[in-house]
Amino acid sequence: MNKKTSLGNRLVASPYLLWSVLFIVAPMFFVIYYSFTNSAGAFTFENITELAKYTDTFLRSIWFGVLATIICLVLAYPIAYIIAQTSSNAQRTLVALVMLPMWMNFLIRTYSWMAILQDTGIINTFLNKIGIGTIRMINTPGAVILGMVYNFLPFMILPLYSVMAKLDKSVIEAAQDLGGNRLDVVRKVILPLSMPGIASGLTMVFVPSVSTFYISQKLGGGSFDLIGDVIERQFQQSYNYNLGASISLVLMVLILFSMAFLTKFTTEGEGMVI
Amino acid sequence: MEEKIIIDLKNISLSFGEEQILKDLNLYIRDKEFLTLLGPSGCGKTTTLRIIAGFLEPDSGEVIFENKNMNGVPPHKRHVNTIFQRYALFPHLNVYENVAFGLRVKKMPEKEIKTKVNDMLALVNLKGFEKRNVNSLSGGQQQRVAIARALANEPSVLLLDEPLGALDLKLRKDMQAELKSIQERLGITFIYVTHDQEEALSMSDTIVVMDSGVIQQIGTPQDIYNEPKNAFVADFIGESNILDGIMRRDLFVEFSGHRFKCLDSGFEKDELVDVVVRPEDVEVVPAEQGMLKGTVTSITFKGVHFEIIVDIKDYKWMIQSTDYQEVDSEIGLLITPDDIHIMKKSVYSGVFGDYSSFSEEFDELSDVNEEVED
After folding, report:
1. Could you read off the pLDDT of B226-244 as tens digits, one per residue?
2. Which of 3.30.565.10, 2.40.50.140, 2.30.30.20, 2.40.128.110 would CATH assign to domain B240-371?
3. How far is A203 from chain B (nearest CA, A)?
4. Which residues of A touch B55 (CB under 8 A)?
5. Closest listed residue to residue A274, CA positions, set A190, A203, A191
């Protein structure tokens, strides 16, 4: 549009502009500002160089995030496919069921998993009763990843479902008609056509997984520090805003890079659903 | 026409819930023929096609391909291919890959695929479109890709589900001729579904007229037009005046208060019958010379002829004539034995054929409904 925006247009857009400045631009500015200053406010690279200490934590966060994302994809894909195949009434119900856990507080849900997994928890009590004995589940990497998968699974199912529900049935029939068996149809038609949903789902699960802090503390027992935990500690306990900000900044850059990478390989210019 | 039977449907019935879609349908299809399933929406024609393709299983009855029972055989194992109503091209593949889809599934060597795809694209006049995105093509071009894609698999039977429904009139006419010529060149069987009677008449070797899940008549286009079996067929194919008549004896029928000579025989004496007179067969003469006399109630210019509605003894006839007549003037009609077709009474008697409620607008409204497929 080449037309000059009128005063009226600008007035209408101003609340949005104000919102963006207040809640997006300003925080970003502060994150960058704190990252490159010390507690006295002087410019420094110290915060960034100090990050080397946290290499292991970074790698662990990314590794856990990747695992949780892949597990979510493997679980969510068939679920989304099955939901999309049912009648429209059943679809509404099933989608509501997928979202139901999200209506409950995130902390409460994670606490419930503690109650289920701990040595004196529901599963172990049962295993003891039938004579198998206690199996250590809480405070393991598995428990942390389970927590991530459980909490973020709906974010994978929903974008996949929304793509699959929109698939033209006759395109699938055409593939069958041309000699494609079930596997061919999934591999050559349904999978490529659901790529935008996969890309959105991967983003929506990977980003919160890689930056989560609460799940690792409660289900990992503090032995599997994730980068989110480190950031939280810098702000809540050490009051080292500068280091906390620099870790956040690096995490953000990492996420942006992985998203760019993902988008390049999953969507060939089609764009994501969400 | 070769007499080999390629598809045989025996006693097919199918219901969706309470609604019975097909009622004990029997139909055989000869090899290399162009057969059209014709009927209004909801008549079961698309359902019949989907049963042949394997997308639907009949509740009862047998589907036989070349003497083999195909009940329960999934679509990908049937040697038929379908052209879908809205083309159903793969949006993520370009033109070349769309056409190559079936060949790749069959794991044909790349070199053969290339030759085949190029042949098919040449057949449908789409050379040079290989790399194009299918979403950027016009409706007619998408239709051609769909045809090339289906034919690349070398089916012995091609099923076409209202393939030209979404195209404009001019393009539809061109594609009709093209489809017919492709069918003749390749010598394969076409089973074509349409609600457009003109399309059916101009393309088919055999027309199957269906209504409410029942076959009303099977015949060549000439048979169907000239010798309709009942009032439904007479009304659906072309325009017809359908009147109550009495067969006084062989070769003599009485209707509209006049006794006519006709060519039909084999009825009981004084049997009640339906009489069909096509609007274009009637000759308009001065009132005193006519076998029937009536008052003109409306006249519409149609280009090739005028469409005249004439009131004869409270029954509105439609007459097509090249001569203009004044509204409210009295005219006479001449009907020769050749113009009269006699049908036995059926459930459709009295439902069709009177033009008293006829108006252009009404006709178009009912056409719109037919566009929405079952």
Report:
1. 989 988 999 888 888 998 9
2. 2.40.50.140
3. 22
4. 173, 176
5. A203
